[in-house]
Amino acid sequence: MTSMSAITQTSDLTNKAALIPLATERPAYYRMSGIEETSNVSSEFQEERSEVEVEEEIGYEDPFRYVFYRDRKEWADLEPVPQDDGPNPVVKIAYSDKFTDVYDYFRALLKNDEKSDRALLLTAEAIELNAANYTVWHYRRVLLQALEKDLREEMRYITAIIEDQPKNYQVWHHRRMVVEWLNDPSEELEFIAEILSQDAKNYHAWQHRQWVIKEYKLWDSELEYVEQLLEEDVRNNSAWNQRHYIISHTTGYSDPAILNREVQYSLKQIKKAPHNESVWNYLKGILQDLGLSSHPGLLEQILELKETHCSPYLLGFLVDIYEDFLENTLEHHEEVLSKALELCELLAREKDTIRREYWSYVGRSLQTKYGSSDSSTTTSAPGIDPGSASVHQETPCSS
Amino acid sequence: MKHCRKVERSIQEVVSVYKQIHSLPQPTLLRDQHYQYLKKGLRHLSDAYECLDASRPWLCYWILHSLELLEEPVPTAIASDVCKFLAQCQSPTGGFAGGPCQAAHLAPTYAAVNALCIIGTQEAYNIIDREKLLSFLFSVKQPDGSFVMHIGGEVDVRSTYCAASVASLTNIMTPTLFQDTPTWIVSCQNWEGGLGGVPGLEAHGGYTFCGMAALVILGKEHMLDLKSLLRWVASRQMRYEGGFQGRCNKLVDGCYSFWQAGLLPLLHRALFKGGDSTLSLQKWMFEQQALQEYILLCCQNPAGGLLDKPGKSRDFYHTCYCLSGLSVAQHFGNMDLHHELIVGREENRLAPSHPVYNICPEKVAQAIQHFHQLPVPVPAQKEVSSACNTTADHS
């Protein structure tokens, strides 16, 4: 859930001033780790000196050493605001010096409602330290608008941040805001595809993708993209979901030609990978509104597959077909019910035992709903619970 | 002790002895180690937690809930310190933020209210500014029934659960607050049977729990296709690992022990309310034993804390949800009808948790009792029509 990514010292995205060496009037703020002074004298006999003291003595300052905001002259006008956790703090985080310094100054900006370029730069530092700080992101957006900043540059910025931390809510929401402000989705599909190429199931990426496509009506090439993903990994459930998303929002499934195309596509994928749950769920998903038993020849095809490509999913699908049949037809009830119950029992006992309780329940439900009126079991009576046979005591407790 | 529980205990004892004789491993909950880890974390966290600096009420909730499941009391002084800290996290405009001086956000609001209800003292209850909280909820309400997580923030189904949870516990529900919310939540149910974060997205355990629990609070769970939801969630239990995956064809993760398995008590109750007479009277519709074994054997850090899966590091989020899932798997039923199934020794037993709020049922009852003595705050005139309160900072 959380990305405890390492905090990088330098970032060319944030403080461009960082790379200007000390020789100029504007001091550098980002410095790489301090100079190690080599010395013949062992460290015990050396006084402890700060990097600053050492540098002043030898007359050389490392242009890449980090300087805290509290030491920066241009920030001297702002009084930092320490965090007030209250008297005896709880869940107290051992913030690094840098973290404390940056956020003390962020709080100061917030308090003064300062809208300036230096504030914008500081938000980038605060974000780098904790990209999940939604208060900082919101403030950044306020600044971007108030200062009328170049949103193309902001797109470049957010692109890099997302590449680095793709599993964060705030970064994606920020990108969405910038795209909306620019009213320009032209980079989105390619960018998201790039992120998905690293993690084909990134939920935020898919969410952003669906939003972009819907908002800007970019449906045209998406089915092709989905097929490409399924080609790479037929078990990618996110891709199957996207397939459903595209088709439902474009042609829909009511056209028999489309529905049949999808059914055939699914059966083809089943033959290639019979134990892929996604495709079985998709097949059921697209047929359930019309009724599984209504699709001509489907039952026969599935029964055929049962011989060579059997799986718990196939058996479950059969239960679903039989159930739909029971729901919608009056003939052959006993026969169909018996087949369905037999499958539930097989699944519970042998083929899908992890779902034993569930399949037993399904069996009992079918029996109750479609069984003949003189069938024996009523499970609400205490003491009788044939569906949940177990090692444990049958008699339920009641107060 | 009730007769049948005695019999169950004796059977358990027999199985236990058998396992010892035959040198089979007895999964043990490392109570002491978890307790030390939690006790320390409640006070101090390393800089590795900088990434959760905008989620500190969550840290309070995850830790306090874990402690209550372990039936470890929180010393009065610490409880009071938590209250004072959460007061610092409360926004002047209502709701709670991820830390002092941050903006209000529904997730830390949910966590803060839950943490305060776990503490359950008058001091804790009094921290919550109910009038401002209601105002905050209206300020994040959208015309289509959904809620954004914070001003200028994103929409997804988590927000509805957070809002419904705090509103119901603190008794600030008004007739219009959740107008159109149930319809919106239901639109998140997809072709798979589960719910996505927003309409159109892939079904996901975390979001499904949030949506279902929110609907239960609002009394509208029957609006969902419960049968297909049941099929979806039952299918999320991994046949080899015993734990749950968050989405179809993805990996097992200890936290889904709660988000996914926790749906089954909600479904059971919903189906029962709907007149279903074929429900089991002893078991949830998932393999309780297998889940407990996954958690105990695969999700414990020997030094304390729980985790996603072997090889991952411990954290307080996983500690909370693995323990919550373990509790769900151990306890069937409610106050009237209670059936326990404890894998391993009796010492592994955790306290039962409320399936909607995920705090102990006594704490839920106590909070509701307290806040229902208070009148529902009157919303400011402009809040009544939520259309006025779209996030002004959006553009």
TrEMBL record, chain A:
<keyword id="KW-0677">Repeat</keyword>
<comment type="similarity">
    <text>Belongs to the protein prenyltransferase subunit alpha family.</text>
</comment>
<dbReference type="GO" id="GO:0005965">
    <property type="term" value="C:protein farnesyltransferase complex"/>
</dbReference>
<dbReference type="GO" id="GO:0005953">
    <property type="term" value="C:CAAX-protein geranylgeranyltransferase complex"/>
</dbReference>
<comment type="subunit">
    <text>Heterodimer of FNTA and FNTB (farnesyltransferase). Heterodimer of FNTA and PGGT1B (geranylgeranyltransferase).</text>
</comment>
<dbReference type="GO" id="GO:0004662">
    <property type="term" value="F:CAAX-protein geranylgeranyltransferase activity"/>
</dbReference>
<feature type="compositionally biased region" description="Polar residues">
    <location>
        <begin position="369"/>
        <end position="381"/>
    </location>
</feature>
<protein>
    <recommendedName>
        <fullName>Protein farnesyltransferase/geranylgeranyltransferase type-1 subunit alpha</fullName>
        <ecNumber>2.5.1.58</ecNumber>
        <ecNumber>2.5.1.59</ecNumber>
    </recommendedName>
</protein>
<keyword id="KW-0808">Transferase</keyword>
<feature type="compositionally biased region" description="Polar residues">
    <location>
        <begin position="390"/>
        <end position="399"/>
    </location>
</feature>
<keyword id="KW-0007">Acetylation</keyword>
<dbReference type="InterPro" id="IPR002088">
    <property type="entry name" value="Prenyl_trans_a"/>
</dbReference>
<keyword id="KW-0460">Magnesium</keyword>
<comment type="function">
    <text>Essential subunit of both the farnesyltransferase and the geranylgeranyltransferase complex. Contributes to the transfer of a farnesyl or geranylgeranyl moiety from farnesyl or geranylgeranyl diphosphate to a cysteine at the fourth position from the C-terminus of several proteins having the C-terminal sequence Cys-aliphatic-aliphatic-X. May positively regulate neuromuscular junction development downstream of MUSK via its function in RAC1 prenylation and activation.</text>
</comment>
<dbReference type="Pfam" id="PF01239">
    <property type="entry name" value="PPTA"/>
</dbReference>
<dbReference type="GO" id="GO:0004660">
    <property type="term" value="F:protein farnesyltransferase activity"/>
</dbReference>
<feature type="region of interest" description="Disordered">
    <location>
        <begin position="369"/>
        <end position="399"/>
    </location>
</feature>
<keyword id="KW-0637">Prenyltransferase</keyword>
Automatic annotation (TrEMBL), chain B:
<dbReference type="InterPro" id="IPR008930">
    <property type="entry name" value="Terpenoid_cyclase/PrenylTrfase"/>
</dbReference>
<keyword id="KW-0677">Repeat</keyword>
<dbReference type="InterPro" id="IPR045089">
    <property type="entry name" value="PGGT1B-like"/>
</dbReference>
<keyword id="KW-0443">Lipid metabolism</keyword>
<dbReference type="InterPro" id="IPR026872">
    <property type="entry name" value="FTB"/>
</dbReference>
<keyword id="KW-0808">Transferase</keyword>
<dbReference type="GO" id="GO:0008270">
    <property type="term" value="F:zinc ion binding"/>
</dbReference>
<keyword id="KW-0637">Prenyltransferase</keyword>
<comment type="subunit">
    <text>Heterodimer of an alpha and a beta subunit.</text>
</comment>
<keyword id="KW-0597">Phosphoprotein</keyword>
<comment type="similarity">
    <text>Belongs to the protein prenyltransferase subunit beta family.</text>
</comment>
<keyword id="KW-0479">Metal-binding</keyword>
<dbReference type="GO" id="GO:0005965">
    <property type="term" value="C:protein farnesyltransferase complex"/>
</dbReference>
<comment type="function">
    <text>Essential subunit of the farnesyltransferase complex. Catalyzes the transfer of a farnesyl moiety from farnesyl diphosphate to a cysteine at the fourth position from the C-terminus of several proteins having the C-terminal sequence Cys-aliphatic-aliphatic-X.</text>
</comment>
<dbReference type="InterPro" id="IPR001330">
    <property type="entry name" value="Prenyltrans"/>
</dbReference>
<dbReference type="GO" id="GO:0006629">
    <property type="term" value="P:lipid metabolic process"/>
</dbReference>
<comment type="function">
    <text>Catalyzes the transfer of a farnesyl moiety from farnesyl diphosphate to a cysteine at the fourth position from the C-terminus of several proteins. The beta subunit is responsible for peptide-binding.</text>
</comment>
<protein>
    <recommendedName>
        <fullName>Protein farnesyltransferase subunit beta</fullName>
        <ecNumber>2.5.1.58</ecNumber>
    </recommendedName>
</protein>
<dbReference type="GO" id="GO:0004660">
    <property type="term" value="F:protein farnesyltransferase activity"/>
</dbReference>
<keyword id="KW-0862">Zinc</keyword>
<feature type="domain" description="Prenyltransferase alpha-alpha toroid">
    <location>
        <begin position="29"/>
        <end position="359"/>
    </location>
</feature>
<dbReference type="Pfam" id="PF00432">
    <property type="entry name" value="Prenyltrans"/>
</dbReference>
